[in-house]
Amino acid sequence: MQSRNPVLNKLGQNNRQTWGGPAASPEYLQNMYNAPSYAPPTATRPMTIDDVVVRGFITLGTLVVTAAIAWYLNFSVAIALPAVIVGLVLGLVISFKQSTNPALILGYSVAYGLAVGVISRTYNDVYSGIVFQAVLGTMVAFAGVLSVYALKIFRPTPKFTKFVVAAGIAAVGLMVLNMLVGIFTSGGLGLRTDSPIGWIFSVAMILLGCFFLLLDFDAVEQGVRAGVPEKYSWLMAFGLTVSLVWLYLEILRFISFFFNND
């Protein structure tokens, strides 16, 4: 009886041609003889936590080294805006295309490293020692969020993920609107001023950065469980770096509101 499965039918036709049909041609036999006896596997190695840690050190390390160079050489403040724009464009390309290209990801690290270095030097010139406090605050926040996730005190749900993503988009939109309004009115909407509105907005942005870190940790765990290819460790490292940069800059701004130089 003939099977309705086209794959099985094809297999049956091949079997009949090989064993039960007419004799094979010399060309067919020669092709069989020349065919390799072993075909290497095409599957790539699955991603591990160690892969993400190593790529994270490379990505974040590139950003920190670039920031240190920009600080040491005292690059002009005029470099910050173009660096942010380049980093933003690269970040959007990586995010929307889900790119695992190391060149793009390290390019983002270099661009934002320049911006972070210049911004940090500028803040530190006005508020001596503020950068150390901001770095320490970022490390404490990272350790706290990691502990919350590792101890399973809280795990992101699909609703929580949608809320964080929507809040992130809304926050960026508000910052852009605040910048545009600031062209015509001093301080814009007041979101970035030393005022109660500015304080509340900064706290909200710090919390949002912590929420994104939770999503990053969850993405790494889910990726490892799903056995995604090793190359995606670059994308995971990129996500962690973006969240840490966001967190650091927001903590830096928030501390500046209450920093005492005396």
Q: Which shape, going by the Cα principal axes? A: globular
User: Would you list the SSEs in sequence order as H and E?
Assistant: HHHHHHHHH
Strand count, sense and closure of the main sheet?
none
Poorly predicted spans: 1-24, 35-42
> What is the number of strand segments?
0
Beta-strand share of residues:
under 5%
What portion of residues is helical?
over 70%
- End-to-end separation: 93 Å
Domain count: the total is: 1
Rg from Cα: 27 Å
Continuous helix count: 9
What value does the average pLDDT take?
84
Notes on the protein architecture:
This protein has 262 residues and is mostly helical. It has one domain (49-258). It is built from 9 helices and no strands. The protein has helices spanning 6-20, 26-34, 49-72, 80-97, 102-126, 130-150, 158-184, 196-226, 233-258. Helix 7 packs antiparallel against helix 8 and helix 8 runs antiparallel to helix 9. The protein is globular. The chain starts with 5 loop residues before the first helix and ends with a helix.
